[in-house]
Amino acid sequence: MTPPHYAMRSHIQQCRSIMRDHAMIWRKLCEDRLDSIAFIALRRAILWREVSHGKIPHAATSKLHPLPIPGCVAQREQIRRARTIIEHVAAKFGITHSLLRSTSRAQQVAWPRHVAVWCVRKSTALTNLQIGSLFRRTQTAVLHSIDVVRDRTDTDPDDRYLVHTILHTIP
To answer: Which residues have CB under 8 Å from 66's CB, separation 6+?
Structure first.
């Protein structure tokens, strides 16, 4: 007989595996490497694997709610808009958009990244998790960026003018 904590650990590991699979799908979708039909096929394949390997009990599949397809036209437009904003902010600060998405913590990269995250949040309907995936960051880092921009624009009028000018000149 197995102790109850083993069953709980096993369930947690299965849930983490499912979440990793779905995060991989979302990353591919955000990087334009996956269209909506491929997304549906990949999602069904993962679901089938989870059911057939016992990760999800077969009886529970009828209770699964269909997730909205992030590959729909409106979602893709939001992602394209976010990429336009990222390129616009990078151009305003004189850096490349790949540097903006890098792991650099240098001030000349970090502040433009914070501004870009803030502008994407204000100009699109993307969630913090989706914005984080565009910048290779977590949703907590997105929240931190928004707080940093809010704090700096509250205290420094030059930063406030700069951020609002960038926001209002996005194509």
So the answer is: none
